Model the fold of this input.
Amino acid sequence: MSKKTYIQLFLIFIFIFISLFLFFNYFKKSDFESNINTNLEQTTATGESLIQDLKYQSTDKKGNKYEIVAKKGNIDKDNPDIIYLENVKAIILLQNSDLISIRSNFAKYNIRNFDTLFNDSILVNYGEHVLKSGFLDLSFENNLVSLYDNVRYISGVSSLKADKAEIDILNKKTKIFMEDSNKKVQINNITNGNN
Done:
């Protein structure tokens, strides 16, 4: 083979290597690397997969961490990427930000994209802020935490009641509002005993 052919093969190899590097580092659907520690047990009576004492941790390339812990989980037999959790605690730790702690009785967790739908007795602690609601939808794809169904926000000396609250994970902005624009968010002063 001639010198020209060797150079062409070398350039093609470099092009393929750079293309694969860019794909795996920038265009992968998820930036998270995951570790899962579970005690998986098969129940023979129902054919369902139960997980006891589930703990799932993930960290993205920027150092942001997400951890979810549950007493019990049940893998969806129609979609093994979905796990239904009970007695759930989750922690989001963003770089240069306060820790976000989420608790609920139940959650639907997607192990592929880490999106989680929490429901029943939601309690969110974020710095000095406390939020309560019936449902919480955590989307890493949209960098958004959405709370709805009887939302209560408590901070300092006041509390708010609203239909919905949204927390932008990246810029740490919280928006509290009513679904019906004709209704208003209720604000109460805690020091007077109105909460």
